[in-house]
Specification:
- The structure is a single chain.
- The chain has 73 residues and is α+β, with helices and mostly antiparallel strands.
- The protein has one domain.
- The protein is built from 3 helices and 4 strands.
- The chain has a 4-stranded mixed β-sheet.
- A hairpin with a 4-residue loop joins strand 1 and strand 2.
- The protein is globular, with a radius of gyration of 11 Å.
- The two termini are 20 Å apart.
Amino acid sequence: MTYVCDTARHLICIPYSIENLHAMADELGISKCWFHKTHYDIPKKRIAEITAKCTLVTSKQIVNIIKAHESKL
């Protein structure tokens, strides 16, 4: 699984799915309270740690990844 984030602290994974998002959060030790329907937010105190494990993309790229998944449903 590849972790993907933007500079606005939005975090998703590829392959993208809700199940994979929750698995990613478990792997990274992120509480479910940071989940927001289609993505996780990176906790402020852990930005440097988690972004170091991610591929940095634009917010628009994150939206496009989510929309591509939704169009397959």
